[in-house]
TrEMBL record:
Residues that span the membrane, as ranges: none
Positions annotated to bind S-adenosyl-L-methionine: L73, G100, L119, S120, R121, L122, T123, Y124
Family of the protein in this entry: Belongs to the RNA methyltransferase RlmH family.
Organism of derivation: Sulfurospirillum tamanense
Protein's recorded name: Ribosomal RNA large subunit methyltransferase H
Function noted in UniProt: Specifically methylates the pseudouridine at position 1915 (m3Psi1915) in 23S rRNA.
Assembly description: Homodimer.
Length: 151
């Protein structure tokens, strides 16, 4: 099984990167999990223009990576419990999660995904949302493999 998390980020944080690396390491006995950060000059320029330009830049950056079972994170997406999330990641051998930039995703881009989920109705800082996603990936893998971490 392969799980990829694709995100729009212009800078990293040492403490967040450390936590994410730990979850990737723990997950490695069940799946190959990768963290792919996407940011380029097109995105940087578009984000200074307006929301529509930014969303179009995110779409262009992510489309080449849309393979397998694609899941977008969006505040209006479906909220799942941990057991349902575990079923979601068990549904395919290649699962890819997409976390947008500050302006979110266009409706057209969201329509290209097999699933659109929300981690919460709360708004999180980008790095917090990404950390929560990696924790849930590990939790879901543990649930699917009958590991006691979930308890």
């Amino acid at each position: 099984m392969k799980i990829g998390v694709y995100s729009i980020e212009k800078s990293s944080s040492q403490w967040v990167d450390g936590i994410i690396k730990e979850y990737i390491k723990h997950s490695s006995r069940y799946a190959t999990v990768e963290d792919v950060v996407v940011f380029n000059k097109d995105i940087a320029k578009a984000q200074t223009m307006d929301a529509q330009a930014a969303k179009e830049a995110y779409t262009r950056a992510f489309e080449p990576h849309m393979k397998g079972f694609c899941v977008a994170l969006d505040v209006q997406g479906e909220t799942l419990g941990s057991a349902s999330f575990a079923q979601l990641i068990a549904s395919a051998s290649d699962v890819r999660f997409f976390i947008g930039g500050a302006f979110g995703f266009s409706t057209d881009f969201l329509a290209k995904h097999q699933k659109v989920i929300s981690l919460s109705r709360l708004t999180y800082a980008h790095k917090i949302a990404k950390t929560v996603l990696f924790e849930q990936i590990y939790r879901g893998l543990c649930i699917n493999n009958h590991h006691p971490y979930h308890k």
